[in-house]
Amino acid sequence: MAPERTLARTAPADQGRRREEITRKGRLGSLLSARETPVLGALVVTLLFATMFVDMFATGRNISFLFLSIAAIALMALPMTLVVITGEIDLSVASTLALSSATLGVLWEAGIPIETALLVCLVGGAVLGAFNGFLVTVMRLPSLAVTIGTMALYRGLSYVLLGDRAVASYPQSWVSGARAPFLGVDGLPWIAVAILGLSVVFAVLLHATAIGRSLYDIGNNDEAARFTGVSVTWTKFWLFTLSGTIASGAGVFWTLQYGTSRADTAFGLELQVVAAVLLGGVSIFGGVGSVLGVMSGVLLLGTIRNALQLFGISSEVLQIVTGLVLIASVVTPNLATRLRARRVPVPATRPRSHNGETP
Fold this sequence. Notes:
Layout: H1 2-32, H2 37-53, H3 60-85, H4 93-109, H5 114-138, H6 143-162, H7 172-178, H8 190-207, H9 210-220, H10 222-227, H11 232-258, H12 269-279, H13 291-310, H14 315-343
Helix pairs in contact: 2-13, 3-8, 3-11, 3-12, 3-13, 4-5, 4-6, 4-11, 5-6, 5-11, 7-11, 8-9, 12-13, 12-14, 13-14
């Protein structure tokens, strides 16, 4: 009887160790199969390739230029991530940026202090985003159609304010300050540090709070989310408002960075924002995505464009590359899902007796 008691005592311990080993393997498998893992790997490979084979890429001046060139895209991609996770989309972000830039130019020409003009632009961006949210949530219109319409509307208002002229008389202290390095570190503009901090805030919000979990619930099934007590209408409304506010802030930074306001500012930039979000692993159908993947997608697209520019590639080719990346970011996850589905074995059915019981 002693050996049996020993076996009875040791068996649960062995089973516990096996369960722990299976759990570790499962976590490792989840990490390796995560949607953002491919873009992280591609980013590392691209950075290594560009550092070794592209002249002037690894210089402090070029790295600073790279961060500045993707700053507006990164800012707009953060709220876009939350919007797309809920199953919606906002294609008006670049036009909101342009309208904010045009508004800043008009206010500055009118003699309004620049601090006041900045505040007006941010409030105006919130109103533009809230208008999108109202049409989507209260009027129950599809966000794709709504934001295509407001994309044209907001861009048209930019031309109403400025026409074909430009405003370029901003204070030099503000213009140089927008491009200033963080604590004097060469190659590290302060906006890059600000975006990093903002990314941490969004990551905590999305991945470590009840609000973030509700966003995934909405994206997977908004009706089921309503039954669990989630206010789907208000959540989406505030997400569109946040998207408009941050897009307006990106417009302010864009204006001060380049020292000019134009109605055609950031024309087509929404394509790069959406491409970065989808490339970073966010599903266009909602319910899936992470901040880490999106920021990796932003940096990957920016690195590719920067390296091609250093090679002397034309802007038309860069646009083609962006379009191809956007298509690949949508097609690849669908193909991967289908391949995984084909690998899953179909469980065999056991024969049943005449009384319906399995023998």
